[in-house]
Write a structure and sequence with these properties.
By secondary structure, this protein is an all-alpha fold. 69% of the residues lie in helices and 0% in strands. The longest helix is centred in the last third of the chain and has 27 residues, at 110-136. The structure holds protoporphyrin IX containing FE.
């Protein structure tokens, strides 16, 4: 059994493109319907179709699968891209809790769910730092 971080093991554990797409759909459904997430939801456009496609494609590559985001949209630096918004700990925690909720709804092993949440906290923390850095200038 390969470690999740090796090769495309995480991409496979997530169920490939379809599995990641389902996660992202569930994530935005939670974001859309959960009143406590309104503060973050308002940062996104009304129509979430492109946001869904972008996050799905990004996560495919990020989990060791095909680099579908880069193929369609080019290079991205996650922290600097998000620095246009004031994303502090509160916004980060809302985003992560919508993700935790969506992850819980997937038919994945407990070990993979835990791994994925741990991994997602890394870029989420970097976003907060980058967002603060541009505002403190
Ligand atoms: C920390 C909390 C986060 C907040 C509040 C947040 C918020 C947002 C917002 C408002 C957008 C713009 C959507 C649009 O205009 O269509 C966006 C786009 C995106 N986010 Fe995040 N995000 C967070 C964390 C993350 C993390 C951890 C990742 C990656 C693991 C990520 C990946 C992306 C990607 C790939 C896009 C699309 C970029 C593009 O427009 O090309 N985000 N995010």
């Amino acid at each position: 059994m390969p470690q999740f971080g090796e090769g495309d093991a995480s991409y496979q554990a997530a169920g490939g493109y379809e599995g990641i797409r389902q996660l992202v759909d569930d994530f935005y459904q939670t974001m859309d319907g959960f009143e406590g997430a309104a503060e973050v939801r308002r940062l996104y456009p009304e129509d979430l179709s492109e946001a869904r496609d972008k996050l799905t494609r990004f996560l495919c590559g990020w989990l060791g699968g095909p680099r579908l985001y880069r193929e369609r949209y080019g290079q991205i630096s996650i922290p600097s891209f998000h620095a246009r918004w004031a994303i502090h700990e509160a916004e980060r925690d809302i985003w992560l809790s919508c993700m935790a909720d969506a992850i819980e709804r997937q038919d994945w092993s407990g070990a993979f769910k835990e791994y994925l949440m741990t991994q997602l906290r890394v870029p989420a923390d970097r976003i907060v730092l980058a967002s603060r850095a541009v505002r403190d200038l």
